[in-house]
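Lab notebook, page 48
Experiment: co-folding of the full assembly
Goal: obtain a model of how the components sit together before planning crosslinking
Operator: M.T.
Materials (sequences as entered):
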Amino acid sequence: MEIQPKLDSASSIAAVERDTGISKDTLRVWERRYGFPVPERDASGDRLYPADQVEKLRLIRRLIDQGKRPAKIIGASSEALLAMIEVANTPRQAAAADTSMLQYVRLHRGAELAAALRQALLKQGLQRFAAETVAPLNEAIGEAWMRGEIDVPEEHLYTEQVQNVLRGAIGAHAGVGTRPRVLLTTFPDEEHVLGLLMVEATLVAEGACCLSLGTRTPLPDLRTAAIDGGFDVVGLSFSAAYPSRQAIDDLLQLRMTLPATIAIWAGGEAVKGKEKRLPGIRIVSSLADSVNALTEWRAAHLA
Amino acid sequence: MEIQPKLDSASSIAAVERDTGISKDTLRVWERRYGFPVPERDASGDRLYPADQVEKLRLIRRLIDQGKRPAKIIGASSEALLAMIEVANTPRQAAAADTSMLQYVRLHRGAELAAALRQALLKQGLQRFAAETVAPLNEAIGEAWMRGEIDVPEEHLYTEQVQNVLRGAIGAHAGVGTRPRVLLTTFPDEEHVLGLLMVEATLVAEGACCLSLGTRTPLPDLRTAAIDGGFDVVGLSFSAAYPSRQAIDDLLQLRMTLPATIAIWAGGEAVKGKEKRLPGIRIVSSLADSVNALTEWRAAHLA
DNA sequence: ATCCTTTTTTTGTCCAGGACAAAGACCATG
DNA sequence: CATGGTCTTTGTCCTGGACAAAAAAAGGAT
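Observation: model returned without errors.
Model output:
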């Protein structure tokens, strides 16, 4: 006589794609090949994934991001998968990141995190704050994510607070009319914004005139904006998730479409050490190196 | 003897989906039903969309967003489509938005836009800045977008600068330990962040203790974060693009999963005027109304 | 051993063409 | 006018097959 409330209602294939980042095509082909997931069906034959299968898919996604192959892990139980994630507990120490801030993220202490970040900013100044606090923290968060110690909402919380602090500071430096004029953005498949903000903070602190278009700018629009806006440099940021191969192709294509007078700087994991394959593009290996790039540019272009 | 550089190289179906927002399935079914687009094929039979077809698809997408039906417009030429967009030139005036700021956006004048925004903030204070400058500007930008007067990079530029100013101001207000504690975010299909930031600015200025998770928080995570964090209110923001029907379903589901002691506030075009269908949820009709909601909550919960 | 090249396997994306339900347009009736 | 019912349009999902890019394994040379 109980009416079953649909609390953990099953998800459509579109919702699963959204929540796990695994495409519909891939979900169907996994079902065909490996026998998982095997969703239920609604009245009209559409797949309905129960919550526990979605949860397992999220675990699988993480392990694949760590380099595991689907065929090897997809048959394992959720418990076994969790164990595999924990085994990956990296031996290398969590960098030089401030562990108290990491704790705030883990415990959802947004207000305390914001306060700690602001204090660090005041103490270190914008440039050192970006290089010595945000960058290591970023790395530590990335590792904690891999290890499964933090989840979507913790990462959101972290990103929000860092953005608040960095953007506030960037605004306060508003340099106008200085050189070089740097246009910052990412390619359409890259949606991580923090790398971009860290570079903007670093360059603005050096007196460059930065303009960020945020993430995901289509290539033709980027070309137009760079030329019409009279920019000297276009800066692109790549996260570790960006396929190295595609980064190189995209950068070379951009190099062709932009006049040689506009420099291209690229930074992030995906392009690290690829100088040889990227003629005409300045690879920026770290935040500190972006300052070098700036100095070089000024030496070459400002009498 | 010329080597043809692939400047306007054709795009894969995945790239077209990314750039136009039209799904692969829809692209294929349009081709089948209406005879457009008809892409070329590569060596292995995969679709390759030339740049001009992609451009036309972007026009079509805009007109559909304005309420046109595919069958009626998909056969028209690019010129005819452009004319239709311009005909839609709304008669109603561009709200009370500052036209000089709008000009800065059109002309890619990022630095000037930032300066003007900061000046307005100083003059008006955070709350009036959000309600009287950002909100009308948002609307004006939305209309200009519909009319085809601005494009992707202009909107990116605008969003970036407003974020810089709003986030800086929000950070400066950092109220800790006050009540109510408000958790702000959007549902997984909503990615517009400005509405959220405007609410956060308004509430923070009233001394509420706000925490934003940014956009696209999965429902189970939202539930956990709200309960574990001891929040009094969960605030959701919806843009005009969010399907009204889905907004209602999602909100009702969230209402079921949250304890009655946690209030839900929802704002934005998609929920405007739906009070009747959303029992137990406070519809916030404007930024000013969010202050009302705050006052009501305090009257009811703080002795 | 280590490094580089070639073959084999794995894996994600794409294709065709059919089906269906939700949303929109249309129409008749209160 | 509004309101409810029918017809049309439209986007999403389905099956099952194919293929190329990436990864792994195997082979060979230094």
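Interpretation: The two ends of chain A are 86 Å apart (CA to CA).
Next step: discuss with group before ordering constructs.
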